[in-house]
Write a structure and sequence with these properties.
Blueprint lengths: L1 H25 L1 H13 L7 E8 L13 E8 L11 E7 L6 E3 L6 H10 L3 E2 L4 H10 L3
Antiparallel strand pairs: 1-2, 1-5, 2-3, 3-4
Helix pairs in contact: 3-4
């Protein structure tokens, strides 16, 4: 009886570890974005991040191209006075291993980039592309 319980617990433990490693690999891009924001924000702990989409093969944009991995998120965080700055649409380029992120600069129109990224997404907040596009262009950032 004890050996059956040990086997079952071992299988359960291995399954949990496998699921964690699988999740970690698939969401490393989110951790890279959080890491980048923590280096840039005045109050990193206050950050509210709403991930919109992630693209693994982001090579078709006419707006901006720096790496094949990119993501978009809406970020709100506290400023030096302690008040929230308001939601801000941000685009990120990620290293090929998704361990490092870089914020796309203001030299380009971020909603257009996010529309392109979300159109070629590997992961998205929703599968409805028109819903994401409406969210990007109709929201006031």
């Amino acid at each position: 009886m004890k050996s059956k319980i040990t086997v079952i617990l071992s299988i359960l433990a291995i399954s949990v570890i496998f699921l964690f490693l699988h999740w970690h690999k698939n969401h490393a891009w989110q951790q890279a974005i959080v890491k980048e924001l923590r280096t840039r924000l005045v109050d990193p702990e206050s950050a509210q991040i709403d991930f919109l989409c992630y693209a693994e093969n982001y090579t078709t944009s006419v707006h901006y191209h720096k790496s094949p991995h990119a993501a978009c998120a809406i970020v709100n965080a506290k400023n030096s006075v302690g008040g929230y700055t308001g939601q801000r649409l941000m685009a990120f380029h990620l290293s090929s291993d998704n361990k490092n992120a870089e914020i796309v600069g203001k030299e380009v129109y971020i909603p257009d980039i996010c529309k392109d990224i979300c159109a070629t997404r590997a992961w998205g907040k929703t599968d409805d592309e028109s819903e994401i596009t409406d969210y990007i262009f109709k929201s006031k950032f």
